Amino acid sequence: MHHILTLNSGSSSIKFALFAVNGTPVEKVRGQVEGLGSMPRLKAQTGQSVLADEVLDEARVNDHASGLAAVLGFLQAHFAADTIAAVGHRIVHGGPDYTEPVVLDDARLAELEEFRPLAPLHQPHNISGVRAAKKAFPNAVQVGCFDTAFHRAHPWVNDTYALPRELYDQGVRRYGFHGLSYEYVENRLHEVAPHHADGRVIVTHLGNGSSMCAIQGGQSVGSSMGFTALDGLPMGTRCGQLDPGVVLYMMSELGMSAEEIEDVLYRRSGLKGLSGISHDMRLLEAAGTPEALQAIDYFVYRIRREIGAMIAILSGLDALVFCGGIGEHAVRIRERICQGFDWIGIELDETRNRHGSTVISSDRSRVRVFVIPTNEEAMIASHTARLMAEASSPAIG
Ligand SMILES: Nc1ncnc2c1ncn2[C@@H]1O[C@H](COP(=O)(O)OP(=O)(O)O)[C@@H](O)[C@H]1O
Ligand SMILES: CC(=O)OP(=O)(O)O
Ligand SMILES: [Mg+2]
């Protein structure tokens, strides 16, 4: 039996999963290293049974590289390396040209490495994940699946900034991210509510990184993230939409270096910056301090603002979908986001919302509201399996 391993280095965790492939990939094991930088923990499960749940030594596992080594060590101890035929990687930035998954060779890796400055919380870890997986599983094919690919066919007005043309030509464009998550959720929506999936859909991915996507006919037509994964909604530690004048002011008046500004915008802003407590929504909801409440107020406010903008892009709305750690679990946040949208036809059902049912709107609600747990790993495995099948089938014609 062949397996596909998937690796997904997010900003706050490394998620992995192992799929058996015999046609459609079937998930066998999933796990993650979380708490990188504070209490690192490795968890793995197969179905409902726990395979591993261990607190890792903070002195040994303190960054993405050592977190990844812990993941690979766990996998090598439990699964024979030669059964892993392919490793599918989430690569956050694919720039303008990577519009679909590809087999990663050295030339492509070098090209993708150039996008490091455009995704400093992700791209370096994605690339070193590929290098580490190559070493651990030298006979496996390495496949890259891009967060940006889902948005590449979006309309030009969503692709550009109003900057001089030459900057667009040099690649300064709006790319949009979380594409693997949007693709998965859109596919699931087709299964649970095909009629709505064909209509005007907004998907809100609210995790440690948060973004939104307007989808029509299965195609991304608007997204909140831009050139980098900083733009749009406020996030765990990222600022979201910002007047570029603030960056100029930091440079010229506050004398901050590019590194210092990067640190503020990517690591010290968002929920963490506003609350002064944490990037973690659970801790903010529990803390209830005035600053934590304001951080949550700002988060909800910006999401509601973006929903308004996307309704305008779509000329209406048929389905609103929540996903990501916050979108899937934070009952009160979902309720607050939906409040006051009765004019567009959104009415939540309190009981359904509290239970996190798939449909959380009332039967009267004109817009259907869904909670669909995202699964970037399943999307990566499916792309990887397809690429492997294409590679092994004889060319036609
Ligand atoms: N029950 C919950 N209530 C509120 N927030 C939650 C809950 N469970 C998880 N979260 C939040 O989800 C976020 C992490 O989302 P996730 O999608 O797992 O992150 P990542 O972007 O690293 O993949 C954190 O802010 C966490 O607090
Ligand atoms: C693109 C992005 O923000 O990803 P994540 O949510 O995994 O940090
Ligand atoms: Mg994520």
TrEMBL record:
Gene Ontology molecular function: acetate kinase activity; ATP binding; magnesium ion binding
Details of cofactor binding: Mg(2+). Can also accept Mn(2+).
Name this protein carries in UniProt: Acetate kinase
Family that this chain belongs to: Belongs to the acetokinase family.
Lineage: Bacteria, Pseudomonadati, Pseudomonadota, Alphaproteobacteria, Hyphomicrobiales
Native species: Rhodobium orientis
Example of a GO biological process term: acetate metabolic process
Subunit: Homodimer.
NCBIfam families: ackA
Free-text function comment from the UniProt entry: Catalyzes the formation of acetyl phosphate from acetate and ATP. Can also catalyze the reverse reaction.
Reactions listed under catalytic activity: acetate + ATP = acetyl phosphate + ADP
